[in-house]
Predict the structure.
Amino acid sequence: MTPETTNSTYWQGVRAGAPFILVLVPFATLFGVVATEAGFTLLETIAFSALVVAGASQFTAVQLLSEHAPTLIVIVTALAVNLRMAMYSASLTPHLGRAPLGKRALVAFFMVDQAYASAILAYEKHPRWSVAQKLPFYFGAITPLVPLWLVFTIVGALVGSAIPPEFALDFAVPITFLAMIAPMLRTAAHVAAALVAIAVSLSLAFIPYGLGLLVAGAAGMIAGGQVELMQARRAEARL
């Protein structure tokens, strides 16, 4: 594998991750604002973003802490929100599982939704890429994302309430996930999982501490699995 080839996939990753900057900047800024308003110091806010690197679970944890939820509930809920990372890891294992341990550890630490979405689509599009090509693509995808996540967390923590309400930074949260999920809804199972999860989460919105999301996630996975099972049975019946 030549350095030119490796550099090529790295810059492809940078270009794939770059569009997410548009929603990551307000997303990170909003977290900085929310964290400081919840009572976090600047140092605590920075450490949270630098060590956790997981926007959705960070928002969840801060929200629950501001509601004085029990510590166990905060931990369990934040971990449950991040369970999708385990599914991401399983999905990437066939592609990156033979990489050196140190590099796999870096991939795991910097596992973010946007980088995963960019990487898995690229890997499926280029099935002949080697691990030496796939790794640079992944690290390229996180290059424009992770540093800006930390920088704009700090910006949000510093400016805090000085941001006018009409800026409505919270729009970035749903848009970020829509931008990642939409390209992945390629099969009936994917669509069924998404629709069931949405329906269940809305119907259980009254449950405190966002625990309805845990049920919704499980229901979505079960629905998707059932659709795949039915499709497999129909395919076998046609043989």
About this structure: The two ends are 43 Å apart (CA to CA). The first helix runs from residue 3 to 17. Residues 3-184 form one domain. The chain has two domains: 3-184, 186-239.
